[in-house]
Design brief:
This is EML-like first beta-propeller domain-containing protein. GO terms for molecular function: microtubule binding. Keywords: Repeat, WD repeat. The chain is mainly β. It folds into 2 domains: 120 residues, YVTN repeat-like/Quinoprotein amine dehydrogenase (Methylamine Dehydrogenase, Chain H, 7 Propeller); 156 residues, YVTN repeat-like/Quinoprotein amine dehydrogenase (Methylamine Dehydrogenase, Chain H), CATH 2.130.10. The chain contains 1 helix and 25 strands. A hairpin with a 5-residue loop joins strand 1 and strand 2.
Amino acid sequence: MAHTSLFLYFHCGDLLTGYSVGNIIAWKRGTNTVNQICQGVHEGGIFSLCLTNNGHLISGDGKDRRLVFFDAALNPTGHTEELAELYGAVRTITQGPGELLIISTTKNMILEAGPGMEISPLMFGHCEEFWSLAKHPQAHQFLSDGRDHLVILWDSLSKQAIRSKEFTDAIHCAAFYPLQSVLITNGTMSPVNNNHNNIINKTNSLDFNVSVMNSHDLLVVLGTSTGRWLVFNCLKHEIIAVHFDGLGEQIECVAYSPGMLLLLFSFFYSHMYLSMHTSLLNLLFSC
């Protein structure tokens, strides 16, 4: 059974109604007569209708993440825009200055869009409770993560998100590798401190060559709610290692020892602390 999700008065005085099945109906001014039906505009219910300054209509829904554009006669123009999955689905659309559109989403983000420009975030962040913060060892940057599976790298001076990635598991804790020689600024590298050689020391119990960590790597260890922990390269935006210790418990916290030779993990139920020599990760770090 379809129900009305919203309504809007068109420029000619007709009443437009959006429905939970993705249809839009135009009712003739001053009557209860259907003037026009636009069927199957969206896969889900119509969440927003926006009348632009030039008299055109834009619709958005809460499922297919699309913006659908209509002309002044309520005919589809054939032009659509799709939001990235990271942003969520369209919740509301409003006309900004000029031809700029302001869009809010189901993941608590505010986006801007317009002719000749990509959809980009004005306000970006977590849509659920976030569980940890990890400070960059040398730069004014930090990492946040949480229940929404999202990891965001922030610049603390500009208060802007630099990079983000959505993971399969919810991320519960994070720790940067202590020796980092670069910071990220809008996807580019800048030197922070190159006075150290950034060499991971070799221990007597390990039998392989230890190499210098690549200076362009910005590495962080992420502990998940499923007991897996990941090595993530923030700059290359890729997971370079995944490990599972078999406990299947949420990793409460992860930290490097002062000498950077140990990785310490705390698990929720067993309260066990597991350690790994950092040198064991060196081959992964230099991938």
